[in-house]
Design goal:
Blueprint (H helix, E strand, L loop, with lengths): L1 H20 L7 H23 L4 H27 L5 H29 L2
Helix pairs in contact: 1-2, 1-4, 2-3, 3-4
Length: about 120
C-alpha cells in the first residue's frame, strides 16, 4: 500500500505543479487551476481515508470517490492541454498515470467486493 500511496502523492504533487504553472493572466486559467487543485488533492485525501476505513463497505466507498476524482482530474488535464494553457505533450504522462491509478483502485474495489460476497 505504501508504494501506491507514494504514486498517488507524486501524481497529486505533479498536478499541483501544473496548477501553479498556469498563468493567472490567461482567461479561465484560474478557474481551471482551482478545479483541478481541488479534485486532485481529493484523490489523496480519499485514498488516505480508505486506508483507515472502518469497514470493507467504507473502504470501497472511499476508493470509488478517489476514482471519480481521478476521472475529474483527468478531464481538467485534458482541457488544460486542449485549450493550450500547457502543451498537451507535457501532460500526457499525468493523463496516463491517472488511468493507471484508476485501474489499480478499480481492481482493489473488485477484489474487496468479491471478499464481501458481492
Amino acid at each position: 500500500m505504501i508504494e501506491l500511496e507514494d504514486r498517488i502523492v507524486s501524481f497529486v504533487a505533479r498536478c499541483i505543479k501544473v496548477c501553479a504553472a498556469l498563468s493567472p493572466k490567461a482567461v479561465g486559467s484560474t478557474g481551471l487551476a482551482d478545479q483541478m487543485f481541488r479534485s486532485s488533492t481529493s484523490i489523496a485525501a480519499n485514498y488516505a481515508e480508505a486506508c483507515e476505513a472502518e469497514s470493507a463497505k467504507d473502504f470501497v466507498h472511499k476508493l470509488k470517490v478517489a476514482m471519480k476524482e481521478l476521472s475529474e482530474t483527468r478531464i481538467w488535464l485534458r482541457l488544460i492541454g486542449e485549450a493550450g494553457y500547457v502543451e498537451s505533450g507535457k501532460l500526457a504522462d499525468l493523463i496516463c498515470e491517472s488511468r493507471e491509478l484508476s485501474r489499480i483502485l478499480s481492481a482493489s474495489v473488485m477484489t474487496t467486493k468479491k471478499k464481501m460476497g458481492g
